């Protein structure tokens, strides 16, 4: 930095040392003036340009960090969704197993209930059959008695009537 400062102070002295231009070329004073101009320009613009450059770098870095955070968040959500899918598969498998067991239990219960109903129906059929037989026996006995009592030709005493009825019933 010190060398730059000394050159900056010595540069105007070198510019005044140029000749009148009689056959001499003024390239050296022009270069010195350019260097002085560049030095002043650098002195005035360097900090804002550096600040803008670093600001741009920081803005890009911040956007990159934000994008990386979003990527990490989306990856975390993806992993969470994958875990939920795996849990759902396990739960679905458990539910399927439970439904199969429940179906088996219901089939056994339905079969048992059906067997009970069949037994009840068979018992009801036997009772109905016995009832109809008794009804038929009563009808036959009633018919025989009506015939006997309707005709005067046949007079039977009580013992013969009981024997006749017993023969019809059996």
From TrEMBL:
CDD domains: ATP-synt_Fo_b. The chain crosses the membrane at residues 27-46. InterPro entries: ATP_synth_b/b'su_bac/chlpt. Keywords: ATP synthesis, Cell membrane, CF(0), Hydrogen ion transport, Hydrolase, Ion transport, Membrane, Transmembrane, Transmembrane helix, Transport. It comes from the Bacteria. One of its GO terms (molecular function) is hydrolase activity. GO terms for cellular component: endomembrane system; plasma membrane; proton-transporting ATP synthase complex. It is found in: Cell membrane; Endomembrane system. Its main location: membrane. The keyword Repeat does not apply. It is a single-pass membrane protein. Pfam families: ATP-synt_B (PF00430). F-type ATPases have 2 components, F(1) - the catalytic core - and F(0) - the membrane proton channel. F(1) has five subunits: alpha(3), beta(3), gamma(1), delta(1), epsilon(1). F(0) has three main subunits: a(1), b(2) and c(10-14). The alpha and beta chains form an alternating ring which encloses part of the gamma chain. F(1) is attached to F(0) by a central stalk formed by the gamma and epsilon chains, while a peripheral stalk is formed by the delta and b chains. Component of the F(0) channel, it forms part of the peripheral stalk, linking F(1) to F(0). The b'-subunit is a diverged and duplicated form of b found in plants and photosynthetic bacteria. F(1)F(0) ATP synthase produces ATP from ADP in the presence of a proton or sodium gradient. F-type ATPases consist of two structural domains, F(1) containing the extramembraneous catalytic core and F(0) containing the membrane proton channel, linked together by a central stalk and a peripheral stalk. During catalysis, ATP synthesis in the catalytic domain of F(1) is coupled via a rotary mechanism of the central stalk subunits to proton translocation. Belongs to the ATPase B chain family. This is ATP synthase subunit b. It comes from Campylobacter devanensis. The gene is atpF.
């Amino acid at each position: 930095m010190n060398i730059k400062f000394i050159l900056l102070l010595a540069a105007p002295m070198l510019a005044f040392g140029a000749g009148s231009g009689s056959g001499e070329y003024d390239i050296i004073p022009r270069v010195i003036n350019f260097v002085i101009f560049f030095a002043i320009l650098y002195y005035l613009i360097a900090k804002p340009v550096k600040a803008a450059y670093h600001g741009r770098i920081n803005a890009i870095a911040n956007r990159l960090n934000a994008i990386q955070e979003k990527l990490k968040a989306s990856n975390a959500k993806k992993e969470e969704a994958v875990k939920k899918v795996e849990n759902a598969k396990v739960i679905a498998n458990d539910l399927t197993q439970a439904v199969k067991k429940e179906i088996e239990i219901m089939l056994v219960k339905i079969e048992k209930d059906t067997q009970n109903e069949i037994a009840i129906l068979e018992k009801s059929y036997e009772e109905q059959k016995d009832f109809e037989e008794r009804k038929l026996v009563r009808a036959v006995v009633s018919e025989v008695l009506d015939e006997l009592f309707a005709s005067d030709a046949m007079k039977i005493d009580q013992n013969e009537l009981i024997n006749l009825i017993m023969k019809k019933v059996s």
